[in-house]
């Protein structure tokens, strides 16, 4: 009912209106402020642990020299400038799918350019979405823990309370999700502005401690340190990557704020603040090596330490909130693209389409975050598990971008290969460096990603097999209509609407109604909900009508993968366009299938069981399509895969 991957190719860099995007118009200043609060929360809180973890390898190897400090900071600056600024802010923000970014959006764009589903593109998109699930669990855990650990510097007597406080904050954060975040989100921007001003100012205060830290802008220092220190340099590179975690968010959230606000916020405010902070931490470590254990918080004077802990904790909560809402968004995209069963989606805002809450996803995220915090117990331990998921997603995004630049932007092959290869070399270097962490905890995001991929693969495969079987056992609708005209079944007054996942065959609910109730309504509407390879569909293109006979009509409703299909609203629009429809004389007939395992299934037994379990988690069509429950008739059937 909601799966379709075939639609016209989207043009890169196309500009869509605010009305089409579904968001009210806002000033550039307001959008820049909003992007600072939502998009840059994750990468903005990286200074809490990125340089500390990078230099911890040098401390263990007893080589905390000026060369090591400048080399690590030089690598951090290179990562921020090359990976974030050039790749994401300048390049990838142009590879938008009608204003939307992110792995699944890019997958849909790439498939559109190829004219249909490609196995390679599909697997890349699924892998990117699966790896994001690992990031969505680890980010809240490491961010909140790293901030609360600042209390240990205020007084060691608070050390035993760090874990309980972090767990309490995280439980509260996930508990309030069901109430919506629209009001709280209005404070995100101003708070993060204060946070960036504070960390930038603290860093600038300490640069005079060791002015030679400014030599870190020379990328040769980082490259030389990396090459001269073998596996140690490679290990440091893996921790340096912690400084750019969250870069994917600025691309994924592009549809909420637009390209220009995201670019302006990064280049004019966020990047300078981050660079100043890292340089300040480095200068302080060069002048006082003992501060390497927690350089971020030790930038603050004693009187400002506790306020900085509070501000940092709030900032990490904001960063976590952005990741959680991003997880809700990507799950909805996956549902609409047919990668997951349809889960119940609650809209927490009447004016913003993107404000959603998915209870099952929220519970899974909370469980995963709590288990990670309890198992690892410190942000330093969690740092070993962090990075692999993000680097994997970056590799996927870069690979998908190649299809866009070749098929849509029409770049020559030499330019496409040259640009993509330069990004891919850096991404793969970061990925390889992070793979060294597998034994120390890096297996966690990989395991989460593999589980997510298995779930999506199973759902796609099982649904395809079930659809093929149903199609074989069904009657084409254009053959059924003449048969009904000859048999003349009893006609009931009013309109019957039958939802279908294949507009070419008779809906199962229609066949069951005729078979068991021996009745056919005076007017029959076959309704097919189609998800397009675009984020949103303009309201004026919401539906297509086709008359099949005097009393049979077919309506195809078009929705983007960022939209929730609301059937009553579409029917109201059809009524304004002339379709005779009265909700009080209309009944919705829905088929409810109970899927059973089959010994003859084409899937292995474990996948058979998993698919059956997933079907039981799916929300019913009444809730998913927002159909009034008092107008619904459900007709059940048992089917085997």
Protein model, in words:
With 641 residues, this protein is α/β, with parallel strands linked by helices. The chain has two domains: 27-461, Amino acid/polyamine transporter I (Up-down Bundle); 473-640, no CATH class. It has helices at residues 18-21, 28-38, 41-44, 50-60, 66-91, 103-114, 119-148, 151-154, 162-175, 182-206, 219-228, 230-240, 247-252, 254-257, 259-287, 295-298, 302-336, 359-376, 379-383, 388-408, 413-435, 438-472, 477-487, 508-517, 567-576, 605-617, 621-624; strands at residues 346-347, 356-357, 490-500, 519-531, 543-547, 552-559, 586-596, 632-640. A six-stranded mixed beta sheet has the order 5-6-4-3-7-8, sandwiched between helices. It has a two-stranded antiparallel ribbon with strand order 1-2. Mean pLDDT is 86; it is low at 1-25.
